[in-house]
Amino acid sequence: MTRKKPKIIKERVPTPEVPVEERVKSFVEVNLGYDFASAVKEAERCIQCPPEYASCIKGCPVHINIPGFIGKLIEHRDDPKKAVKEALKVIWSDNTLPGVTGRVCPQEEQCEAPCVMGKVGDPINIGKLERFVADYARTHGIEEELLREFVSNGNDIKGKVAVVGSGPAGLTCAGELAKMGYKVTIFEALHKPGGVLVYGIPEFRLPKEILNKEIAKLRELGVEIKLDHIVGKTITLEELLEEYDAVFIGTGAGTPKLLNIPGILLDRIYSANEFLTRVNLMKAYEFPEYDTPITVGKKTIVIGAGNTAMDAARSALRLGSEVTIAYRRGREDMTARIEEIQHAEEEGVKFEFFLSPVEFIGDENGKIKAVKFEKMKPLEERDAKGKRKIVGTGEYVTLEADTVIIAIGLEPNKIISEEASSLKTNPDGTLVVDKNLMTSIPGVFAGGDAIRGEATVILAMGDGKKAAKSIDEYIRKKHLSA
Amino acid sequence: MGYKITKKENLSAIDFFMEVEAPHVAKSWKPGQFVVLIVDEKGERVPMSVYYAEDGKIGMFIRRHGVTTFKLWYEKNVGDKILSVAGPLGKPIEVKHYGNVVFAADAVCAQAECYATLKAMKEAGNYTIAIHSFENRDNVYPERFLAKSVADEFYITTEDGSVGRKGHYLDVVKELIEQDKVDIVFAGGKLGSLKKLAELTGSYGIPTIVTVRQIMVDGTGMCGSCRILYDGEVKFVCRDGPMFDAHKVDWDDVIKRDARFVEQQNLARERYIAKLREKGVI
Ligand SMILES: Cc1cc2nc3c(=O)[nH]c(=O)nc-3n(C[C@H](O)[C@H](O)[C@H](O)COP(=O)(O)OP(=O)(O)OC[C@H]3O[C@@H](n4cnc5c(N)ncnc54)[C@H](O)[C@@H]3O)c2cc1C
Ligand SMILES: Cc1cc2nc3c(=O)[nH]c(=O)nc-3n(C[C@H](O)[C@H](O)[C@H](O)COP(=O)(O)OP(=O)(O)OC[C@H]3O[C@@H](n4cnc5c(N)ncnc54)[C@H](O)[C@@H]3O)c2cc1C
Ligand code: SF4
Ligand code: SF4
Ligand code: FES
Fold first, then answer.
1. Structural domains of chain A sorted by starting position, each given as residue range(s) with its CATH number in brackets
2. What is the ipTM of this complex?
3. What are the backbone dihedrals phi and psi of residue B211, each rounded to the nearest 5 degrees, phi first?
């Protein structure tokens, strides 16, 4: 059957969202995603560029066959289950967490940026389509069905691998290895698996249910998860190497950078990690029903403009505060996903640009009461990342605030590298790896934010997948030579 | 899932002892390190010092402070489980030959650390001096829980003199220093006392290493809740400590930060006590 020459439809099929008045009062997910009919409608906008040329594929860091999976939705439009199952098969060969990436990837910089449809209208809503496939599969038992087909019958265990950290890098690496027939054990420092996906990104952006399902899937594949285990403290890397054929380190970049300016110890100044961990992981928004407290005043200033800053700002707003984001650069330099910036604006978060904090001012009880900023101005010159350089103007402003959240970045946690002194690190604390993602210790591999510094979920997953391949090769070779 | 409680015993009017199965922690724990535990699904992550670690179990001394510790006392019995025990966390103390080593304790966490530290110090050939301070007779622990068995010299003080010497460890430390009997002091407990101790030993130039208590969340260096100013630099107690040179700590800030959630803690405590009353537990 030949398809009619597609009619160019410039506008995206919209996805419904929870109205602003409702969502600022709760942590329910904001975007409701497509149903099957609207997903097919959006899919049909895709002109199905041949995979060899499709620019969207090049934009995706793990090169998902995007026209391939979109094509399945169109092809089997009369059989939703089949359509989704076939589409999921295509996605899974490159990405095992589409329910997550469809929600959190910066699509406007990745897959959707080069989409040819973007030249005549809106690019295809690839993220939401990917999310739709994952959600529909999850809620209709399709995922389980496919999983059973994917798993190699696990009688012949090929070897044992330890995975350190259960963020997207660790989860992906573990899943891939388990599918290849390895016995995998994940060691996670916290009491819940998921890394940033569980302690950082809020419920209103990534419902925990999705993550729980992913974890359940891994357990079904035979992956064991040891929580409360801090590698480097509870068990050393050396001990892991004695027991396992190889180790993957996916410990992320979990240590917050704090501003080295006066007043940093004042009460109600939180790092975004402390704030988000209290709120998301420990459910402080349900205090005192839950035991972990958080205090948020009437006026919150969030410093920074990445995803972390947006998440912190929108969480503080939901806890009843007025929120201003203060950023030392300009609007166009903000690094957060566009959708998050839009949602923050809709919900009433205010933005102040070209302000760089120089001092936190406290009251007599040691609580923050205002932040003093220096006004900055942009130069024509650009830095290595292509952002305009900024300089101080020597002019200052003071903004009142009874809560401050610092979201200026994260660096790798040094617990493992301090303990295992032969593990080579770069000056910024990231681990040194070769092209196969092997660290300076043979048999120890690493990926995700632990080697990149703060990056993205999809890059962490890409690393996890690549490392799984390298680990498989490494173990095969080891067994051959043994 | 969960970690089984294997022993539980009251120690005094305010504190109790609990032993929990946590083989992963017990295997690698060293004096100076602590754990972070969570009682149940709704629980907070709270740090606890370790009294001993052996046979896959860890012993802890716990004060009935607020919701978490009330839950441990009123709801959890031998055979029950608690949700999470993570650790060991923090850096161990440097155990070596110092000469005469004092450990001074005036609150629950330090009473536990006193035994653990001096045991290791004695094995390393030091002359060990234990000072346990309590407010009054009702708060004093049975002697078998104190550091007597590992101390060459052993003191108990109470503020009212009802047990042991009248006074506080600060008085004993001062006397011992004046007798030229102290090469190093380790201490922990009330932050106000540690500040005074730092002033006291500072004036004599005696090295002093103390546990700095700060409010924690993860305990692994991920959140910065436990940050302090140390020698002018921001340090995370859970990762860089919890033991620090007392003379380099900015004590006033440490004390202020310990009170960050007082209002919420009080609210939660009152709410919990009301529930206990309702159920007729108290
Ligand atoms: C608030 C926030 C919002 C973000 N939003 C987005 C977004 O919208 N889109 C996007 O693409 N990216 C986003 N990111 C970035 C993204 O989350 C990270 O790049 C990604 O999670 C990195 O994955 P990872 O597996 O390398 O590490 P992590 O997700 O950081 O996981 C590391 C895990 O290792 C554990 N661990 C650390 N040390 C040890 C140890 N010694 N022993 C045992 N376990 C250990 C940690 O507890 C953690 O669970 C966001 C980040 C934050 C903080
Ligand atoms: C390194 C370290 C070792 C400790 N060792 C012991 C110990 O051996 N025995 C013991 O009883 N207590 C110890 N503590 C204190 C212990 O964490 C608190 O007793 C516990 O958090 C009280 O919780 P709660 O809900 O019962 O009381 P709350 O009413 O919540 O608090 C009572 C007191 O505990 C402190 N506190 C509350 N939450 C935390 C938290 N998340 N982190 C740190 N402190 C908190 C508060 O500042 C307050 O002073 C230690 C703390 C640290 C940092
Ligand atoms: S993984 Fe991310 S970048 Fe790749 S197609 Fe999916 S949403 Fe786009
Ligand atoms: S570039 Fe756009 S139109 Fe072409 S295949 Fe990819 S999503 Fe479809
Ligand atoms: S408790 Fe989070 S960094 Fe120390």
1. 20-150 (1.10.1060.10), 156-254+411-481 (3.50.50.60), 258-408 (3.50.50.60)
2. 0.95
3. -80, 125
